[in-house]
Each structure stands twice: as C-alpha cells, then as structure tokens.
Amino acid sequence: MAQSSQDILTSAFGDDFNPRAYLATYYPAEVQAEKLLEALHSLDVKYHAGQPTDIKYLLKSTGIPSELIENLLILDFQRVIARRLLAEYPRGDITTVDVGGGPTAYQHIAMSLAANKIIHSEFLERNREEVDRWLRNEQGAYDWSGYFTIIRLMLLKDAEYQAVLMSHLAASDPAIRAHAQLVDALLRNPDLEAYKTKVRHCVSGNVIFGDIFEQNLGNPMELCGLADVVTSNFAVESATGDMAQWEKGMRNIAALVKVGGFLAVAAIRNAGWYLVGDKKVPAVQIDESAIANFCAAERFTIVETRVLTGSNQDKHGYDGVVFALAKKE
To answer: Which residues lie below 8 Å from residue 225, measured CB to CB, with a gap of 6+?
Structure first.
C-alpha cells in the first residue's frame, strides 16, 4: 500500500518535523552571493545545453561544497524560468501555484517578477506557519536576503533577460512599459526591501493547505486549470517511495496548469532517501527520463531542462538533481 506524504513524515519524525532543521540542511541563511555567482562561470557548457553534467567537475572547478553547488543550480534555474516568463507574460499579471512549497520562500523571488498572485500550497501546518512568519516580517523569521541578492544579480547579468526587459521598456503598450519599469527598478536597487515587499504582496494571504496526492490538492479553493505557471520543487518524489503514487501526484499537479501555461519541476535524482537533520526520509527513484515520459503522456512539451549528476548517493541519498520547464499543449 502506497504511503502518503503524512505517513512518510510521521514515520520518520512523529510530530517532531522541524522546518528550521530542513532549512538549515538545504538552504543555509548565510550564503556568499559573489562567490556563488563567480562559480556560475565554471558551469559546463553541456549543462546550459541541458545535457547531464557531473557535480565532481563543478566541485573541482569551483572549490565550493556540493550543497552550495546544488543551491546555486536551483537559483540558476529560477533565472531560466524568469527569462522565459518575462517574454511570455510581459504585463507581469499571471497567477502561479507553488505545490509542496514547504517552509521556503526562495522559489517566489524570481517568480514574483512575472506574477501578481502566488499561491503557496503546503501539506504541513508548521511549514505554512514558517512561510507566514516571513511574510509578516516577524522578528526571528528565516532570512532569505542572500537568495534575493543572488537572484537580483543573476538577472542583472543575464544578457537575454536584460534584452527582453529593454524591449519592454520601449514597448508601445503602457501596461508592458509600466511592468518593465517596475522590474528594472527592483533589480537595480541593492536595497532589497522593495523587492521583498513585491514578493510579500504576491504571496500574502495565499498560503494554503495542499495535499499533492489529492485532486485539487484536497483544497476547497478551485485550483484545477487556474494557474498560468505551476512550480513544484523537491516535492512529489520527496513525499513518497512509490512510483505509482509519484505519477498520481504529478498528474494532480499537472491538472492545475492552464492550457498554454507552464509546469516547472525540480527533483532529486535517483533518490532512495534524503536527509532532514539527521533523519532519513524515503523518496522515489525518478530521473530526467521519468519526467520526460510523464510530460509526453500529459501533453506537455519540455522547453528547458538541466541535469546534475554525480552527487554522493551514500551521503545524500540521491545522485543528482533534475530541472524541467514544460508547456501545456
């Protein structure tokens, strides 16, 4: 019998799942933005072309730990998504749904530049509370400043993104010009408060319960076919050890996307488990082929993909990371 996300987390932690332990493991607040951005220049050309790249090459060429390399690539794919969405949605008026958002906010930083509403869905109440603490700007809330800095600088230095932005600044449509002016101002201002306010405006009031393994995420709000973009980062494969259950969860997510909209997925690759603190949590073994096959079956066309291989599976429980952006036909 397939385990639900609640079953898996309960068996591993009881009632002791700690969002801060998860955040400390995978998203340390102290990040060296400039050092990570320098490491971007060491990325293999094959990686940018969507071909598998071995993390051992990046470890040697960058000199930074594997966990930071993975974080860098997570944020770099946010840049790739932002570039696509700027071209597709020049007025910045889309609705996005983030599925299995956990206690994190990094995934909304780039997305907020294309959206006026971001729905953050998450199963565990304590994870939703962690996000709400940041949205309310409470004292002691997790600090995502380093991630804002990295995304801001990435997009400033992305020649393709800037070329599209400049064309929008000269557009005849006043709504496109106004949105481009807002984005340009946010990215050029090293004071992050205005950018953080933009993210909070998009997400505040939209943190909701969501169960990946239920239609419509088990939520009374009508979500199916609502979203221009659906994002799901390390969610479905991390919530079950069963392939059939993974496929069910992915279908539930795909149903949220409008025709013509986008699905953006990040997943740990060939995972048997992953760590939260010192606890091992079961995961399902999927890779880029599984994601490609799923997209084809559900009438999605993959438009961007990135694959990192060679992670220490004995230490981390998985051997890499897969990123895919697909358009619903």
So the answer is: 255, 256, 257, 258, 259
